[in-house]
Design brief:
The structure holds 2 protein chains of 2 kinds.
Chain A (H helix, E strand, L loop, with lengths): L12 E3 L2 E9 L4 H14 L3 E7 L14 E9 L10 E6 L2 H7 L3 E10 L5 H6 L16 E5 L1 H8 L7 H6 L1 H12 L5 H10 L5 H20 L6 E3 L8 E7 H16 L3 E5 L6 H8 L7 E4 L3 H13 L3 E6 L1 H17 L3 E7 L16 H6 L9 E3 L5 H16 L2 E7 H5 L1 E5 L48 E3 L14 H21 L11 E8 L3 H13 L4 E6 L1 E3 L5 H5 L2 E8 L4 H10 L4 E4 L8 H10 L3
Chain B lengths: L26 H15 L6 E5 L14 E4 L5 H11 L4 E7 H7 L1 H10 L4 E6 L34 H7 L4 E6 L3 H13 L4 E6 L11 H4 L4 H4 E4 L6 E2 L5 E6 L2 E6 L19 H8 L8 E8 L5 H16 L4 H5 L4 E4 L2
Parallel strand pairs in B: 1-2, 1-3, 3-4, 4-6, 5-6, 7-11
Antiparallel strand pairs in B: 5-11, 8-9, 9-10
Classes of the chains: A alpha/beta, B alpha/beta.
């Protein structure tokens, strides 16, 4: 179908290098859907994209209130982007509460599109406003476009005989149509989405949504207040076939890839928790890949069942967020003692306790490093972007199986719900990793020795069903080699050292740390996890401004890459920006005795590039 | 082709580990009966896995020469569920105690039963915490004096069989550590059942709660204090077989057969497939008002959890074909950047 609406007057189109838009409304208004469609469409047009969905923990907070505001920010550009953008070129606000809670990020002269129909007295009251913000003199700073979206949508869809409520629900598509016109976005993908989503028995709704979308587009073409539209050329990404991908989706697909590469069935156990649940939803759809998903009765059962599956010789994986990881701690210690491969994935959110379930934070690093009884070190890896989730879980499973050890992977709410273009990998080029399950006993003179180790200190992964290799494993300290219960002091010390050395051995299997920028200089920005894009962009900006600054981003936090200490020594200062109170900073200081400087933000929000840039300038004077 | 299978003996299931239970512990008897029954089931040691939690009973896996996991407190059902889902071919036993499965592991216990995972769970009930040296457990009786209850237990105890029927377990049984013939029969029937088989064993802790079940163990009294459940047979008990159990309205009552007023046909006939409400009534029969039932309370057939889960996987493969990652990655909207 054609998306070329019959145009009456051709308005001029201005090409710009990048646009940042935020769409805000009630949590029931469909802003997330709108944002995802705009993102996908922009990616299909070849733009680089980065997104930041921001929504309340409540599913339907009271309508029209500030607590219920849900937003979706996207930056699309003709150049590489690593962040959703600091400030907004355009803000689309569906009600007064959404407007006043987001206006501060709109640039001076920025485009402000509001649903004029929802600025009645009752709406203002819900937003705790005495007067309409649209009448405020400060509005002169912006290009305000007042659109009676509710009325126009109702008129547009009147022919479909929908209820008032159903007709009202179409207004996000009207807003979408207007935004699509404004930025020259092709409507095809969204039309496919509409007709795919509302096909079965809901064709009237699909038709109405299409009509609303087209009405929004036509409105943009016609009204005089919008004198021109904008467009963004495709970005110059490296050759290949791309798709848009979100972090949790990439993580789920990475698990599928790891299972295939290792010749294992994926056993995935989880308990619902924000923001990790989408991984469960995603994997539950792929049973035809042989995936066994298990929604356990609680977090502890989830990790324990994954341990059971690993003991049985399959790929045991569990995911959660901070509170759930706290519950899994004892079982993670068990898996470490059993010396079984296991993935424990923590999609971090604001803490402590229930904290900020839908907001992002990096404050679980020390929990996963140390949050277990006894000397219980584990490898800890962290994804740096949505697409990187795909790679990092495969690295983690490789290490888990090569060393017979549970591996923790950190993601966060920002990565999990964020999206970016993802170059589709060629699975035939991803080498399989070899896993051996012994068939013969390693001890001709007696019972099989489950804790007899190889050169990496990994024990054999003998699995039930193998004749002659029957053995018992457990959480009690065991004698090296035989695995028999042992309370011998010398043996305990030996085993504690072995378990620590196993973690250290992971560094032998992982690549060394790389550095973006000068190999020595005034400042090294050292980051980890979801702050990658903002740190990289800020460092590049500072480099362009002539500053002597480099960027190292850690994907492996335990063990640290073998060359990290040497890298740290090559810069006068080390700055560690983190969305926590300085957790990596503490690890770096204690490990390398480097006087690393922390830059810490704990607001449930990612870093902006400009605040990092300012901080870099402060330290490169 | 005629392949001679090795005839398994109890010794084939004995591990090389020294047993570290207290002398006189009821666990020895359960271990002995298990080792006797395992060869009779005919599943080789390498296909058998024992999984336990924490507590005296949970040391059990070390003493059988099969595969085994001594896990953490209360979580054996969860470990076993994962193992069984991943490896439906294995024969899995969960060994647990009253504290392990009804206190810290209560949640996993009920979910194991309601899901009907095909495994056997044997609960050694001694009404005390033994390994931590004598605190009261969720099955300790009201008023029981223990180290942590010097003035007596005030909690109302949990009844494991009532919990099991509440969770609609498909196989529920009870036996007594010292009643070795009965115990062996019950263990064997548990092994034969497809689905979760729950067996409560009255087990004497001779150190911290000696004699808790002496009424049921003592050969002199046990015929009057316990009643053997037999499918399709009237519920009769007593050394002289002169007493029975009758359903009166919605209650059970003990009736005397010797007086001739009550006939055998008037008694409750035990039915392993009876309505759960009736099983619940049986679970409430407590000494000394009633003889306590031993044997199989319930034995019904339902689809097992792993059958259902695996069935969906098979169905998905059948309907959509074996998953192809490359196709999955390319599904939906993609675009190509040319060189």
């Amino acid at each position: 179908m054609s998306t070329q609406a019959s145009s009456t007057i051709e308005k001029p189109v201005e090409f710009v290098s990048g646009i940042t838009v935020r769409l805000v409304g009630d949590s029931g208004d469909g802003m997330q859907l709108l944002g995802q469609q705009l993102t996908n469409t922009s990616a299909l047009l070849g733009n680089d994209v980065a997104t930041f969905p921001d929504f309340p923990a409540e599913i339907r907070a009271p309508r029209g209130t500030r607590a219920g505001v849900s937003g979706f920010q996207v930056q699309f550009a003709s150049h590489e982007v690593h962040t959703p953008g600091d400030t907004l070129d355009a803000l689309v606000a569906m009600n007064p509460a959404a407007l006043v809670t987001n206006l501060a990020d709109l640039v001076k002269g920025g485009l402000l599109i509001v649903n004029d129909d929802s600025f009645e007295d009752k709406d203002l009251k819900l937003a705790k406003l005495n007067t309409s913000p649209l009448e405020d003199p400060s509005m002169e700073k912006y290009r305000l476009i007042k659109v009676p979206m509710t009325r126009l949508t109702k008129e547009a869809v009147s022919e479909f005989g929908l209820s008032t409520k159903e007709a009202d629900r179409c207004k996000n598509f009207f807003a979408m149509g207007l935004v699509y016109w404004l930025y020259g976005r092709n409507m095809d993908a969204t039309l496919r989405f509409i007709h795919g989503k509302f096909s079965a028995g809901k064709s009237a709704i699909a038709a109405a949504n299409e009509k609303a979308l087209r009405a929004g587009w036509a409105y943009g073409e016609t009204i005089e207040a919008l004198g021109q539209s904008y467009n963004v050329e495709p970005a110059k990404l490296s050759p290949g076939t791309y798709r848009n991908i979100m972090g949790n989706q990439a993580l789920a697909w990475g698990l599928l890839a790891a299972a295939q590469r290792s010749g294992k069935e994926l056993f995935y156990a989880s308990y619902p928790i924000t923001p990790a649940s989408d991984i469960l939803h995603e994997l539950a759809r792929y049973k035809n890949f042989g995936v066994c998903t298990f929604q356990a009765e609680d977090e502890i059962a989830a990790v324990c069942s994954a341990i059971g599956a690993s003991y049985g010789g399959q790929m045991g994986v569990t995911t959660s967020s901070g509170p759930g990881i706290a519950l899994k701690a004892e079982a993670m210690g068990l898996a470490l003692m059993l010396e079984l491969p296991l993935l424990v994935i923590d999609v971090q959110r604001g803490g402590p306790s229930t904290g900020l379930p839908t907001k992002t934070e990096q404050a679980d690093l020390l929990q996963v490093m140390f949050g277990r009884n006894g000397e219980a070190p584990l490898p800890v890896f962290a994804a740096r972007s949505p697409g990187d989730c795909f790679d990092i879980v495969q690295d983690a499973w490789m290490i888990a199986t090569q060393l017979m050890i549970p591996v923790v992977v950190l993601s966060d709410g920002y990565i999990a719900n964020g999206a970016e273009p993802w170059k589709i990998p060629d699975m035939t080029k991803l080498a399989p990793f070899t896993i051996r399950h012994p068939q013969e006993s390693n001890n001709p003179d007696g019972p099989f020795k489950p804790y007899l180790r190889n050169e990496l200190l990994a024990r054999p992964w003998a699995i039930p069903g193998t004749p002659g290799l029957m053995h018992r494993v457990g959480g009690i300290e065991k004698e090296d080699g035989t695995g028999n219960i042992s309370y011998d002091p010398e043996n305990h010390q030996k085993m504690v050292h072995i378990r620590a050395q196993k973690v250290a051995n992971a560094a032998k299997l992982l690549p060394p740390q790389d550095v973006e920028g000068p190999q020595s200089g005034d400042l090294l920005v050292l980051s980890w996890g979801g702050t990658y894009g903002a740190c990289l962009t800020a460092v590049q900006r500072a480099q362009a401004a002539g500053k002597s600054v480099a960027h190292a981003h850690l994907r492996y936090l335990n063990p640290f890459p073998s060359n990290l200490g040497e890298i740290l020594g090559r810069y006068k200062k080390v700055l560690i920006p983190e969305l926590n109170m300085g957790q990596l900073q503490m690890l770096i200081r204690s490990r390398y005795l480097v006087d690393a400087i922390g830059y810490n933000k704990i607001k449930g929000k990612p870093f902006t590039v400009s605040e990092l840039y300012d901080k870099i300038l402060e330290h490169t004077k | 082709m005629n392949t001679a299978l090795k005839v398994l003996k109890a010794d084939d299931f004995a591990s090389d580990q020294d047993i570290r239970w207290c002398p006189g512990c009821g666990d020895y008897s359960i271990l002995a009966q298990m080792k006797k029954v395992l060869p009779e089931i005919g599943i080789p040691p390498e296909q058998t896995v024992f999984i336990s939690g924490i507590g005296c009973s949970s040391r059990f896996p070390y003493y059988v020469n099969t595969y085994g996991v001594h896990s953490i407190h209360g979580r054996a059902p969860a470990v076993a569920t994962g193992l069984k889902l991943a490896r439906p071919d294995l024969s899995v036993w969960v060994i647990t105690g009253d504290g392990d499965s009804l206190s810290i592991g209560g949640n996993h216990f009920i979910h194991l039963l309601r899901r009907n995972v095909d495994l056997n769970i044997v609960l050694f009930n001694n009404r005390i915490y033994g390994l931590t040296k004598g605190q009261y457990s969720p099955t300790s009786v009201e008023g029981q004096i223990t180290k942590s209850t010097p003035m007596g237990v005030v909690d109302h105890p949990l009844n494991p069989i009532s919990i099991a029927i509440g969770a609609e377990a498909t196989f529920i049984a009870r036996s007594v550590d010292s009643n070795i013939k009965h115990l062996a029969t019950v263990l064997k029937r548990a092994a034969e059942h497809r689905g979760t088989s729950f067996v409560e064993v009255y087990q004497n802790c001779n150190v911290f709660n000696d004699g808790a079940f002496s009424y049921a163990q003592d050969k002199a009294t046990r015929d009057d204090t316990t009643i053997e459940l037999e499918h399709g047979k009237p519920m009769i008990f007593g050394k002289e077989k002169d007493k029975g159990i009758r359903l009166n309205g919605f209650s059970l009552e003990v009736v005397n057969l010797a007086e001739g007023k009550v006939k055998e046909d008037d008694l409750l006939f035990h039915d392993e497939q009876a309505d759960p409400a009736l099983v619940y009534l049986l679970s409430r029969m407590r000494h000394p008002q009633f003889p306590e039932p031993i044997g199989v309370f319930r034995n019904v057939v339902h689809e097992t959890f792993e059958q259902a889960v695996r069935g969906q996987i098979d169905q998905a493969v059948e309907q959509r074909g074996k998953g192809d990652l490359q196709k999955l990655f390319a599904s939906g909207d993609t675009w190509t950047v040319k060189v």
